[in-house]
Design brief:
The protein is an alpha/beta fold. The protein is built from eleven helices and twelve strands. It is globular. It starts with a helix and ends with a helix.
């Protein structure tokens, strides 16, 4: 009887460790999130977003795989189909609603039962939603920039700088993207809001491009009297840098003859602000992919962020030469390497009442 009892006890112990080992192994299995960039690898802003996302994923022990859309909405869709058909399909999708095709993309995710989060460009702004889940159950949420405020802050900073420099007559050339691009349209709306506060400022025209250097240059070349332009309001840092080089080639000085600014806080843009090549850059939304990964981490681990929100907005702030160093990455290294991104997770911090997706908090932690 003693031998039988001992055997039973040993069997129970072995079974326990087998089960525990199996559970531990499962718990340690990394989850994979597929990120779909609308541009190619040369897109400076998306490179910043992806690099930040990699830092967050590393701290949360998640895997990410990047797909590039090459500025083609159909390629984006094909990439999603390809990712979804992999033998080990991703545990989640992160993507923007490129050229207002969010409905198309979320249906691909729904077809393959892959939970998804929109970043940068969310669902059609014409929709009035209190939750993304009411639109589609596989649309877990969205993390998007406050584009209207970004456009407003950019215009306000440029106008105030030009006035401080003694400019009496101020004419603005706005360089934006296609009218159906929701981000760009909201940024222009912010510009229009700022113009109401400065009725003496004139908007000469708004040039619509595809965000590229080529179309930005083409738009600038059509301007007949460059000396009349006091401000170039650009919807991205890339376009602002192109404008700065163009005006310089025509013998006009940025920061003296013309004041140029963009949106995105790309590292190149911030270096240009410090050197005086640009007056300002407005940004902060480079963190959107990282915030989305934190939401995914909590969702996958049983803490649904929908109890707080499904729609998150990124704050956008202007930087000028005197304060750009608080963000500027001078040594081209991973400035986020020492940030404890695990502190933003509700799963890992049960006492956390709400998500602290705060730019000031993030920058303070990076120091």
């Amino acid at each position: 009887m003693k031998n039988l009892a001992l055997k039973s006890m040993l069997s129970a112990v072995i079974y326990f460790f087998l089960i525990a080992g199996s559970s531990f192994s499962f718990a340690q299995t990394k989850k994979t999130i597929a990120i779909f960039s609308p541009g190619d690898k040369s897109n400076l802003f998306w490179a910043e977003m992806i690099n930040f996302g990699k830092s967050v994923a590393d701290k949360l022990q998640m895997d990410i795989v990047i797909y590039y859309g090459d500025d083609d909405a159909d390629i984006m869709a094909k990439n999603m189909e390809s990712a979804a058909k992999l033998p080990a399909k991703p545990d989640g999708f992160i993507f923007p609603s490129m050229t207002a095709q969010g409905d198309r993309y979320i249906k691909i995710a729904e077809k393959h039962e892959i939970p998804s989060i929109f970043v940068n460009i969310g669902l059609d702004k014409k929709m009035t939603l209190s939750s993304t889940r009411s639109f589609n159950s596989f649309c877990l949420g969205q993390v998007t920039p406050d584009d209207e405020n970004a456009g407003y802050e950019l215009a306000k900073t440029l106008i105030q700088t030009a006035k401080s420099a003694g400019k009496k007559s101020i004419n603005i050339l706005a360089v934006s993207a296609q009218e159906n691009d929701e981000n760009a349209a909201l940024r222009v709306k912010g510009l229009e809001k700022a113009l109401k506060e400065f009725p003496d400022v004139i908007l000469s025209r708004t040039a619509n491009t595809d965000w590229s250097k080529e179309q930005t240059l083409a738009a600038l070349e059509t301007e007949k009297d460059l000396k009349k332009i006091t401000i170039v309001w650009a919807a991205s840092d890339d376009m602002a840098l192109t404008a700065s080089s163009f005006f310089k080639s025509k013998g006009l000085s940025q920061g003296k003859d013309v004041f140029i600014g963009g949106i995105d806080w790309t590292n190149q843009g911030l270096h240009a602000v410090k050197s005086g090549e640009l007056t300002t850059s407005v940004g902060g939304h480079f963190a959107d992919i990282g915030w989305a990964l934190i939401l995914f981490y909590d969702y996958i681990n049983g803490k649904d962020f929908a109890t707080e929100h499904t729609i998150f907005k990124s704050a956008m702030k202007p930087l000028i030469a005197k304060n750009v160093n608080i963000v500027l990455n001078e040594e081209e290294k991973d400035r986020w390497a020492d940030v404890n991104f695990r502190s933003f997770s509700k799963v890992l911090n049960p006492n956390l009442k709400e998500y602290r997706f705060d730019l000031v908090v993030l920058l303070r932690m990076a120091k």
